[in-house]
Give the backbone structure.
Amino acid sequence: MEKNKKKMKGRLLQYLVWPVYFTVAVAAVNAIVFFVNRTSGLVVLPLTVSCAAGAGLLYGYQRRRIYQDILDMTVDHAQIQNTILKRLPVPYGILDENGRILWGNERLEALLKADKNSRHPVWELIPELKEKDYPPQEGRLIRQIRLGDEYFRLEIDNVPVSEEMVSVDILGLRNDQGGLYTLYLFDETEQVLFAREREDEKLVVGLIYLDNYDEVLESIEEVRRSLLVALIDRKINRYVIRMNGFIKKLEKDKYLVLIKKRCLTGMKEDKFALLEDVKTVSIGNDMSVTISIGLGLGGDSYSKNYDYARAAIDMALGRGGDQAVIKEKDSITYYGGKSQRVEKNTRVKARVKAHALRELIENSEKILIMGHRIGDVDSFGAGVGIHRIAATLGKRSYIVADTIEPLLRPMLERVQANLETEEPFIISCEKAVEMVDALTLIVVVDVNRPSYTECPAILTKGSNIVVLDHHRQMTERLENAVLSYVEPYASSTCELVAEILQYVDEEVRISSSEADLMYAGIVVDTNSFVSKAGVRTFEAAAFLRRNGADVVRVRKMLRDNMDDYKARAAAVSQAEIFEKYYAISVCPAEGLDSPTVVGAQAANELLNIVGVKASFVLTEYNNVIYISARSIDEVNVQVIMEKFGGGGHMTIAGAQLKDCTIGEAKDLLRQTVSKMIEEGDI
């Protein structure tokens, strides 16, 4: 500061001494003139005296007044600047390294309700700003925040401490402290509201399908069918019109819907009440009407939103129907799905899929069959059925599996013994990866999530993929499958494969060992024909019985050893009830060959207790906690397991948790179920 003052005095002094220099010059000229001509010198002398008097007066008397005027001007200028900053409409302030406000203008103090006397750091005054964000790592922080009903762009800039500021030592600053920080809040409320308004006006494309149109019409008299259709149309039209949308009936059981994005909020809030509303339509029909809704938004064009809607409705139908699916660019949201899907009596779809599968197998050199990790009886049973189809068509096929549960080994050894060739039909994942080429057909059974398959690596190498599964589809699924047969109504994948066997080729004949394994898959997944066993389930079982499946032999194969039985009994005896109707327990895994299977069996046993609507058994195995969830018909355990990244069916589902203990997993499960009950999701 002193240095700047001296420089200022030096410049001012230069301006003040110029009259003195001029007076000296005039005096010199006057002396020369006087020396040449005395008379002329006397004439010029008054001018010289006048210049000397003026320079002396300016330098000696007016100098202090000039200094005072400059000082007054400087002070006034600083006050004007301070007033302008204080009344600046842009909130502005200065912060120290601890985030406290050293100075702030009136707008900032009004917004944050704090001034320089406040000792609260800025992140306590602005909740959206976290302590870890201050001070900014790179000297500057830009973020959009909300204060009340207003939106601002927050900017924090670093002001390094100079040597002059350190030398004054008023603030006690040091060079190594990072200096001061300026805080700006730029009002962007209008821009945000305009952008939000523009977003709310975007078009959402929707498709509404009646899940069981034909089945419902067949359940009532013919004269009442037109009335039932009219009542369904009325329910759907009223709901869409109430949302200020447009609806057009495409087919007898399909509707196209167009709504604004702002109306989608109301649909989410009432959890798509239309799903339950159409079920109330009853004029003597034996079954309730259910619908599926698929909505697409967030695309770059209307056609893209329609593609999203098509994908959403396919997802809803693939998950069993009676639900709404919203697909945006990078996310999928599910609503509903509380009822069991009605079994289709027609086998047209099974016949079409069987013929398509035959063409794919005939055009391939070899077939790799793969189920999910820790394959169960249904997974291997379905794999054996596909292996038999490939063998009948003269193609080499292999089941990919790195691990085989002890329960399954005797069954698979018996299948191997009855094959026409001694070549092993089960290969490792490593060998399967080496075998994949352009003419390899990969058949995925009993799973539709790539990350859950036995060997995900072969899915990335192969392009010809077939999916056969009975689990509901989730966000993660095989998108590039050339043939997909996913039917959640089916009791098991063995049921689907048993139907395909009847249509793919008349010459297909399965051995008794293969029939036993497939029959066992149906028995296990239906809990001995108690859960999800429909008409087609029994027809598939009858087909397997005709091909040599023996009920007694299967029962002997599925018997438990003593350790498994004791572990299951321990899990049942230690079960606790929470939220009145939900049982939760832990299955001991020590000493068991297949602890996850025992845990699933224990979950089934807990459903035999009066009052239990759903059961959950946790099993820790290989540092992973497996949750087996079961219900009879009142609770959709699939939507519960989806909260943990799992899935399954309405009555049979599961999930896997990592990086947590059994106690933490139980607490998380309780909290999740309680929250879903409060929100009406279950």
Notes: The chain is about 45% helix and 20% strand. The mean pLDDT is 81. The first helix runs from residue 2 to 36.
